[in-house]
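Bench notes, afternoon.
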Amino acid sequence: MRVKRGVTKHQRHQKIRRSTKGMTLAHRSSVRRGKQAVTKGLQFAYRDRRNRKRTFRALWNARINAAARMHGTTYSRLIAGLKRANIIIDRKILAELTVNEPKAFEAILKEAKK
């Protein structure tokens, strides 16, 4: 008996069409170009989820360094002092303190300088 694949192919094309919602021109109308666009978009999404972590860590380090220099030290000396004092605080929270809670950051800085 012959196997007809029209329904399966149509469902596959509909899946691509749903994924390309919001794209323009051939990416939206052509199934072949749409499939390429979706595949590439997923690759970019995967890569950039990792790059976002890298970017934010650089931003946090810059904020911590700026705040540390305002108090007469540097980023590397501050981090080394924190490790010596056994203060376990991640850079995200430390950067948040520099922006929103300067008094708390000063207290941590004093402990790190000892």
